[in-house]
Amino acid sequence: MGRRLRRAVIALDLLRAQREGATGLDRRQGARLSALVAHARASSPFYRAKYRGLPDQPSLRELPVVSKPELMGAFDDWVTDPRVDRAGVEAFIADPTRIGAPYLGRYFVCRTSGTTGHPGLFVHDAHACAVYEAFTARIDLAWLSGPQWIQMARQRARWATVLGTGGHFAGEGWMELQRHRDPWRRRTLRVFSLQRPLPEIVAALNAFDPAVLTSYPSALELLAEEQLAGRLQVRPVIVELGGESLDDDARARIAAGLGGALHDAYSASECMAMAYDCAHGWLHVNSDWVILEPVDADGRPTPRGEASHTVLLSNLANRVQPIIRYDLGDTVLARPDPCPCGNPLPAIRVQGRRDDVLRLRSAEGATIRVLPLVVGSVVDETPGVQRSQLVQTGARSLLLRLDLEPGASAERVWTQAHARLADYLVDQGLRGVEITLGADPPARSATSGKFRQVIAGGY
């Protein structure tokens, strides 16, 4: 079956499942989970050993929980295609010119940064990619009204994503994959790098005139300010947010500046487009292909209406790298009653990452804002860095804390990380900012217990 036909068949089934309601969704979820578990047992040495002693058809909660460090440590036994191995994937992602290109001619590959202390490498097969693409049909029908469809067509459905680039991360990689596959999408989809100075991004967006604008909330707040100042002049139909948490005040600022309809999507490198929002502010999980289990610190189900310690992900679409009851690390609250929007898909809210925007002073005295997800990734991409934390200590000074991979040379990693960070800051107009190596490793907040990668100082 060709890619377009496969995607169309899956999209039609998505629409049928949603019309059938909870019964149809649960039936599909159960059958797909059973098939995935059987496939993992048969084709993954890791899962064969992990599931030894379990019943032939175990229930979901009988399956053991897995973690990113555990899976990364057993990478070659985890994958179900023997042609895929960690050394080959690492060699592939070491080349930034291959972002979005298919690995071994058939797989989409992406990686996570070292924010959690455990970078991840994720491989998605053609069927999983078709499912992720088909999710857009469900999302478009939920998000777009008749007039919005017309406006999208007038702007030729141009879609701009403004992201940190260059590291085989999921956002940029997924967009580039679509561009690789389709000549029309090469014209209508474009990635704009947040590593570039803000005036360059503004000029490029003005020239592109996107109908859909996707970025991190912290970046969209900056773009909204540029729009209100008259320097940015775009007219998006949809403004899509992802990658960070968003409070009501920030949402209002983005809406006031950029216009368009603001929407949230919940994605991860482990599974694209897991959930999408409705008009009532809830995220609806694509539960016919995705299982999200909010659990407490002991792995027990969290009651609906209560925030979880973490959430377990089962991606029912991907067979090459089965993800079954995987600790995703996010705090999730499941709605205890049906969502008033009428969507039968389960409704959740997610408390994700929210770091600080740095406001540093240039040598000329101007205040320049530095986005947390971008500056954090600049350091995390340094070879030997497992996790980093950047703390502002003055208007022109930063403290960099590093957690190194085993065996890494502390002096070499610090030299490279310092150079990468300094070069990035110079590109932003921040020459001569003092960067000091912290004596302690990255630390969690003493008050909240949560880890923040970028901490502003209010200077």
Characterise the protein shown here.
The protein is an alpha/beta fold and 459 residues long. It has 3 domains: 3-128 and 270-351, Rossmann fold, CATH 3.40.50.12780; 155-266, Rossmann fold (3-Layer(aba) Sandwich); 358-455, GMP Synthetase, Chain A, domain 3, CATH 3.30.300. It is 37% helix and 22% strand. The chain is built from 15 helices and 20 strands. The chain has helices at residues 3-20, 22-43, 45-50, 68-73, 75-78, 86-93, 126-143, 146-154, 170-181, 183-188, 198-208, 217-228, 248-258, 372-380, 410-427; strands at 108-111, 121-124, 159-163, 189-193, 212-215, 238-241, 261-268, 271-277, 283-285, 290-295, 310-315, 323-327, 331-334, 347-351, 358-361, 367-370, 385-394, 397-404, 434-437, 454-455. It has a 9-stranded mixed β-sheet, sandwiched between helices. A 4-stranded mixed β-sheet has the order 19-18-17-20. β17 (385-394) and β18 form a beta hairpin. α1 crosses α2 (22-43), α1 crosses α7 and α12 (217-228) packs across α13. The longest helix has 22 residues, at 22-43. It is globular and about 65 Å long. It starts with a helix and ends with a strand. The model has no long low-confidence stretch (mean pLDDT 91).
